[in-house]
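Reviewers asked in the last cycle whether our approach scales beyond single polypeptides. To address this, we selected a multi-component target totalling 994 residues and predicted its structure end to end. The input consisted of the following lines:
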Amino acid sequence: MSTAAKRPGLLARVVRRPSGAAAIGWLVLLTAATAGASFTAPRGPLEQDLGHVLAGPSGGHLLGTDNLGRDLLSRLLFGGRSTLLAVAESLLVYLVIGTVLGLASGYLGGWVDWLVTRTADLMFALPGIIIVLVVLSVFPGNLHAAMITFGVLGSPGLIRILRSQTLGIREELYVAAAKVAGLTRSQILRRHVLPRMTSMVIVQAALFSAIVVTIQAGLGFLGLGAQPPDPSWGGLVADASQNIDRDPWMLVPAGIPLVITVIALGLLGDAIRDAAIEGWSVSKMAAPPGRTVPAPRSAEDAVAPVEGSIEPDARALLSVRNLSVEIGGIPVVQGVSFDVMAGETLGVVGESGCGKSVTALGVLGLVPGGGRVAGGQVVFDGVDLAGSPAELARVRGSGIAYVSQEPMVALDPTFPVGRQLAEAVRRHSRADRRTTRAAAHRRVIELLTMVNIPDPEAVAGRYPHQLSGGMAQRVAIALALAGDPKLLIADEPTTALDVTVQAEILTLLRGLQAETGMAVLIVTHDWGVVADLCHRSVVMYAGQVVEQADVESMFTLPLHPYTAGLLAANPHLAGGGEPLPTIPGTVPAPRDWPQGCRFAARCSRVTDACAAAPVALTRPVPDRLTRCVHSQQLLVEGTPR
Amino acid sequence: MTPQTILDIQDLTVEFRQGRRTAPFRAVDSVSLTIAAGETVGLVGESGSGKSTIGRAVLGLNPVRSGRIHFEGADITSARPGVRRELSARLQVVFQDPYSSLNPARTIGRTLAEPLLVHRKIGAAETAERVTEMLARVGMPADTANRYPGQFSGGQRQRIAIARALMLSPRLVICDEPVSALDLSIQAQVMNLLADLQSELSLSYLFIAHDLPVVRHLSHRIVVLYRGQVMESGPADDVYADPVHPYTQALLAAVPEPDPRVQRARRADKEAAGATVLSTQPPAATGCAFAHRCPHAIDICHSLRPELLPVPGGEASGGGRTAACHRAADLHPLTVPAHSGITGEEVPCSGNE
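The resulting structure, written as structure tokens, was:
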């Protein structure tokens, strides 16, 4: 990782992009050639060659001549000076006003914000070009005054953008941390707020420069800029348009530089923005240089043979076999197998990044992030759902229902919850497709009563934002129950809730299960939830099942070091004052999964055998599975808790 | 009782305006607490209890409606920016969200050097040395300094945030839910790190969290908040083993026990005791904040706000226990046997202190 320290500078990163290099090349060439026009231009801008009037390109005149025989290339180069000067003047005014007032308005708030935003709004209402024309009538022919005015008129756009960005960044915790560190207001703005906006400012500046180039040319075209015979780009276009029937070629040298310059400014803005973000953005981390993403391993060598029945269990309500899920071509879940019996609760436990949520969503065929189920069987009620959109659509909601971690996301904020429930009720009452409104409403109230909502009639009329988190989760559960599912998949259903509310929801889930006999597949990281609700539990690590057992045996005698470590790290079980037993390191990312045991790098029992080859799931005792080379040893010396 | 008080909060009240018509929302309501040198005080409560607001008020990030905050003897309730600047060397913070607490556009080295630039005028070489030293102390490799936050996991970022807080050797660190966003195995690593740093550097912590077992593990004393008010406070193990206030009892009973057999027994107990009170009506404007959810509420609970008073018989367990409950005296003796039956096996360490 020492390469990370020596990162090329911003300019080098911009030039490395082809578009950036081309844009910079053109702008540098243009600046140098126009600034040094006295040396670079083949002739003077006013020098007439009356022998070659309105001539095309030739050895004597590379871009031809105009109606007075003046060399077009020379006129372009001399005329470009006023264009570049105009851009510099406008841009400076635009940036200074826009940045200072935008930051001040967003960060300080209060009356400063009020004054700045009102003034900006007022300026938006003014017709810019007319103001510029007024200025030009007061200062005839003074292009500097016009361009500075144009910079002022353009700045409200930048002010608005920077203000809204600042409002967001002001609330970031690192700004609070900087305040606590004792930084002054200007230091915070300079170090923490402004750098986050660099790319935004650069893009806006490039776009604005492009507008200035065209506006300046427009003024020249109208004869309001440089007065003839002095050259300007706009004046060249005007000359060309007057002679369009006699010499159409003249439009080409007059127009093309304008177009290329405008495009170059746009490309430069994009390139600088991308290069500036490249340094710290997360996408950089996803594919660090010099490190190739390993090709997905073939199913044969990656998926260890599961000892035990490969065939789906016919007695099970849900039987998952060798489920593999890929996201972006990288396997994130590999060879996962488990069964859920009717009326049973199965817990899927693990840390983030172990693939437990992806497994749950994979069962429903709803893999996030553009992923897909890459292999395996998901047999629900005797039918394989994997790779069968029609079967999945039939089963979703009515056979298998889903409750997510964030109840507010599951509910549509624009409708009262009663209407959302009624919609689900109608959708699922297949027997009579035209369930009457009254019947649907009765069922909605029934569902809300089932999830112990006090005063269901009133709650049905409320919008999701009017409910507390616990109430919203109850409604989300009611929504899941609308289709009388046989299996409820609950993905961390209580993680976002307070403990007392969590206890109520867990009690509710238990009660509903007793009442309706549905099976529950619950994804959680909380051992307390597993102990409270589950009959059996599956522990996942780095995309694989590492242990599976009934809950009581697992808590008493874990047969995988990861399970044991995870149980021990729970502060609930440790005594106060003494250090918690920890698992060193972190869960490896999918592209860093080793060939052998995936937990080996963090395991205290690691031996050479662990890393040698993929470890298979074994059955050291009846009805228990573990993916550990040392399972026999664990069985013998494991300390019952 | 305590050798030296680092932080002393008296009757702190924080209010937030919510529009012109409605009355301001009182997030913190007359809260008093003290932290001694080298002590960890745990602030527990559910969302909306005002626990983070108290921490932010101490740091000067929230306005204070009334009350006093003293830090090392000096009144910092509404300290001027200059005083805050000077204070920041001794009073620091670790936030909950390790993703938003580090500026993604600055290298870790520059972020860590920042407090030094403000307070000590030292050279670049010495600054780099201090940064490397502090990174090593929180268990991060030296090349961390040249990298960006985007290249680290949540647990690693939280170590970096802790390193930033410790750069100036503070006396008190406000830990605002520092482990809530972390996975179980990472959470244990960070909790151990905080405990180690405390004993090495004799730090004081105000440890804010919603997870009672986590708070109990790290804290010497616990303060339980509900709707901005202190419900109960006392030595961590005592409060955990034998809660006096019905709210603390409800909070403890709600945490599922990570042991199927114990949890089954608790469930059976709870079912025998009858259904829990579901919060339907809003809390009374007067009276106890918890009365509307309390199974033991009587008339006085709805009309008169209970004062935070020493718990009768609390002296027996080492003293320093207070509770704001009208019925503390008549309920507490009753709750002892009922709870010891369950908590007796889960807290084997309560006799250690």
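The two ends of chain A are 42 Å apart (CA to CA). We regard this as preliminary and will revisit it once experimental data from Aim 1 are available.
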